[in-house]
Every structure is written in C-alpha cells, then in structure tokens.
Amino acid sequence: MLDHHVRTRRSAEDFPRTEHLAWKIAQVAADPVSVPPETEAMLINRIIDNAAVSAVSVTRRPVTVARTQAQAHPARHGAGVFGVAGTYSPEWAAWANGVAVRELDFHDTFLAAEYSHPGDNIPALVAVAQQLGVRGTDLIRGLATAYEVQIDLVRGICLHEHKIDHVAHLGPSVAAGVGTMLRLDPETIYDAIGQALHLTTATRQSRKGQISSWKAFAPAYAGKVAIEAVDRAMRGEGSPAPIWEGEDGVISWLLSGPAHTYTVPLPAPDEPKRAILDSYTKEHSAEYQSQAPIDLARRMRDRVGDLAQIEKIVLHTSHHTHVVIGTGSNDPQKFDPDASRETLDHSVMYIFAVALQDGSWHHERSYAPERAHRPDTVELWRKISTVEDPEWTRRYHSADPAEKAFGARAEITLTNGEVITDELAVADAHPLGARPFEREQYIAKFTELADGVVESAEQQRFLTVADELPGLKPGALGSLNVLVDPRVLDKAPTIPSGIFR
Questions:
Q1: In the list 3, 8, 142, 184, which could disulfide-bond 258, CB 3.0-4.6 Å?
Q2: Are the C-beta atoms of 198 and 240 separated by less than 8 Å?
Q3: What is the number of other CB atoms lying within 10 angstroms of the CB of residue 38?
Q4: Residue 120 near residue 148, CB atoms below 8 Å
C-alpha cells in the first residue's frame, strides 16, 4: 500500500492532475491487476448477504416506495429490481435495491477513521453490469475496486467529526468500481469520481435525533448519483477539480480545512485489492457498534440472574460508540419508547437492555412497539449509560487487526452493591470472534431471512448462480436477481401515487 498525503491547495499553486487524490484513485481503478481468490470468495459472500437482508426487508415501506419508483422506469435491456420480474433503468434499479439492502442495517461494515457499509456498492455495480451485459469476472473486478476505494477512504478521512455523512465516501467508490468493471480510461474515471463526490456530500442529520427512513435511502441515492456521474463522464463531461484539495473543495470547507493533511492508503501499481477482507458482516440487525454489546449481554445474563436487582449499568466503550449510539450523543430520543425503529437501532442502551432480557436479538421482534413499551424494559433501559474509555478508543483506531476492537466493558451494579463485570472486544461473527462468518454462515443467514419470502427452489437457484459468478458470461448477470413470492409482495403497504407513474 502507498500512503498519499492530501491537503488543500491554492488555485494559484502548481498542482498537476497526477497529484490529485481523484486521479490516484482513478489509476487504482484502471489497474488491470487480477483479483485474489480470497477476495473473490468474500465478494460472493457479500452478494449473498445483501440478498438475505433484501429478502427480509422487501415488504417494508421504504423498500416498497423505492421499488415502485423504479418500476415507473422500465427499460427493455435494463437491470433487475429485487423481488420482481422485468428490467428497469439501471440507476433506478440501483436505487431500489440499495434501499432494500440498507433498510434494516443488517449487512457488512468497516469502521476506522470513518464509518461505512461497503456492501452499499453492490446494488449499483450489479445494476450497471446487468444493463450493459458485462461478464461475471468484470463485475468481480469492479466490486473489488469499489470495496478497496471506500475502505481506503474510510481509513484516511474522517467525515463524521465535521457532521458529514459517510456516504460521501460511497459516491467515489461506486464511480471507481464502475470504471474498473467497464474498463474505462483513467481520465473518464477521474471525472466520474469528482462529480460523484461533489454530489453526494450531505450532513449527518439523517443519523441524528429522530432518525427517519432517509437513513436507508441515503446510500442508495449515492449509488444512483454515481451511476449518472459515470454516464456523463463517458460522454465527455468534466468535473470540479481538484475536488478534495481545491481552495473551495471538500477538505477546505467541509472537513478539517487548509491547515490539515489527510493520509489515504491506496494499493500500489500491480498490487491486488484485498480491502474487503478487513470488513465484516452482521449477525444482528443493529448498528455495528452494538454487535459486540449484544453478544456480551447474552453472555452476562445468566451471571446476573434476576434483572430486577440491577441498580445501574455502565458501558465503557470507544468515543465513536459513546457519541453515536450512546449517551454521549445527548439524544433524548434514544430513551423514547415511541422512537422510530431507526432511532432504536442507534441506541445501545435500548439494545443492551433487550438483549440482556431476551438473551437473543431479532430483526423484527426486538424493535416491535410493544417490545419497546414493556415497562420492565423501559425501567432497565433508563438505568443504562455509556462512558468513553480512552483504551477502547485507542483500540477502535488501531491499525493492527488483532488489536482493533468495537466492543465494550459492561459494569452491572446490583442493588446489594455487587458489581458484575465482563467485556467483549469484537462480535462473535467478526473474523476474530467466537463464531466467525464463512460461506456456510452467509448461506444460513440467507435461507433464514428468505424463509417465507422466497420459495425454496428460487433460493437454491440464486445460491447456485452466486457460486458460479466468476464463470457467468456476458448477458447472464440478470440471473442474480431474486424473485419473491407474489403473495408476499401483496402484503406490502399501499403507496400513494407520486410524480413518477
């Protein structure tokens, strides 16, 4: 990996395009280096993972809205929309499938200087691949680039400290990945990256306070915008430049300003793209930083016994966990039984209370209104707080995978003064966890979540196609689309008409 130092440059400064971060990313995208077998295998795992979470969310309102919007844009030789037959304009298919993937906060994650869900790249690249009839190996090459670029940006550039949403790293990664997949030249990829970044920067209010369904739409929007950016760049249109380093660019006005230098690692020429291997999926449908606390609560419940004897619980954790999903956020909504599912998903206090009581976590039952309103749950929930522990923060930012941690230490104080303590650094499903996810676990997650939604024969057909992805010929990628039992789709909410019909 090569470290690239990125800072603001004055307009009058001699700063050749070859030094722009967007150009260096474009060079990585255009590098014809082969994809390692382990990267390829994990990409197939994540395609299966995305299908799993799309199946279980297919009748939820935001997913239904996005699907009906996409269905208003049919295209004869277009892309598939999850669950339904037919083909549609690729940017709208990416939009619909991106919302389905993101709705339940249940797919893969990578955390470093910034947050990310790199599986958000998959719907956009698959849609373009289906539209243009590319072969399976080129889709794999494009996804390897998309994962690499997003994860490397996440390693080097923090967005959330400036209240910029993490999808600002997703627009460029989709553009770069599509560029690789379509074997575009560096100049075209460079312009697409610049446009995509310029159009996908937004504030983090979508993840603050009373969180709405836009949390699911935001990444899908970034993928849709990036597809459109690549299309314009392919037609010869340029982009704002230098987009990160410009005097009025992203670093200068949206991030740490002209005095700051960021360090972004990127693969050297001919270096294989392996970043996906540093990411991890979710066993539980909840914000990633609550994955280890859920497993910790399940482990501690037998030691506690009668939960009514709990006086207070303090979770000692990283700065990120404390301020994003903990009491450091200062969000009263995180203690509100009437809060939205999206808000409860970002309350580690609620999540720890329910996991401690139930000894399990479920993508629907754990968030049900009657569950959140249970008097004993509300009482326990409001006894829980978080504090930042510098050691957990240090481990969160560690570059050593063996030391990097996203967990917490729980101190449970009982009414008799006894203190029960335990800690867990990584979730059980993490590559270094007690039960790391391999292909078998990804398939099990898919079959569990698709049960009652996708017929058994269709499940098996899709899994076979996913396994054979590297050998799929041009025009065959439409078979990656999963059809849902129409009787299931009939249960989706009725959506009012909008502009698109």
A1: 8
A2: yes
A3: 12
A4: no
Question: What are the two backbone dihedrals, phi and then psi, of residue 202, each rounded to the nearest 5 degrees?
Answer: -150, 165
- Return all residues near 259 (Cβ < 8 A) that are at least 6 apart: none
Question: In whole angstroms, how far apart are CA 250 and each of 10, 54, 198, 228, 285?
Answer: 13, 33, 8, 20, 33
In 3D space, the residue among 421, 392, 397 whose CA is nearest the CA of residue 408 turns out to be 392
Asked if the model's pLDDT at residue 113 lies above 80, the reply is yes
What type of residue is 17? R
17-52 pLDDT per residue, tens: 999 999 999 999 999 999 999 999 999 999 999 999
Q: What homologous superfamily is domain 288-424 in, according to CATH?
A: 2-methylcitrate dehydratase PrpD (3.30.1330.120)
Find, among 381, 412, 426, 429, the residue nearest to 301 by Cα. 412
The edge-to-edge listing of strands for the beta sheet with 384-388 is 384-388, 310-317, 408-414, 419-424
Query: Amino acid letter at 329?
Result: S
Residue-wise pLDDT tens digits, 213-244? 888 899 999 999 999 999 999 999 999 999 99
Backbone angles phi, psi at 305, to 5 degrees: 75, -120
CA 315 → CA 77, 327, 365, distances in Å? Answer: 52, 10, 24
Alpha-carbon dihedral sign for residues 382, 383, 387, 389: negative
SS3 6: strand
Query: Using CA atoms, how far apart are residues 79 and 415, in angstroms rounded to an integer?
Result: 59
Q: Counting beta carbons within 10 angstroms of the beta carbon of residue 9, is it exposed (0 to 12), middle (13 to 18) or buried (19 or more)? A: buried
Q: What would the DSSP string read from start to end of 119-165?
A: GGHHHHHHHHHHHHT--HHHHHHHHHHHHHHHHHHHHH---GGGTB-
Same fold, 16-278 and 288-424: no
Question: What kind of fold does domain 16-278 have according to CATH?
Answer: 2-methylcitrate dehydratase PrpD (1.10.4100)
Average pLDDT score over the chain: 96
pLDDT band at 207 (very low <50, low <70, confident <90, very high): confident
- Residue range 384-419, pLDDT digits in tens: 999 999 999 999 999 888 899 999 999 999 999 999
Task: Give the residue carrying structure tokens 């014809």.
Answer: 32
Boundaries of every domain in the chain: 16-278, 288-424
Share above pLDDT 70 across residues of the chain, in percent, rounded to a whole number:
100
Burial 423-443 (b: 16+ CB within 10 A, else e): bbbbbbbbeebeeebeeebbb
Is residue 226 within 8 A of residue 180, CB to CB? The reply is no
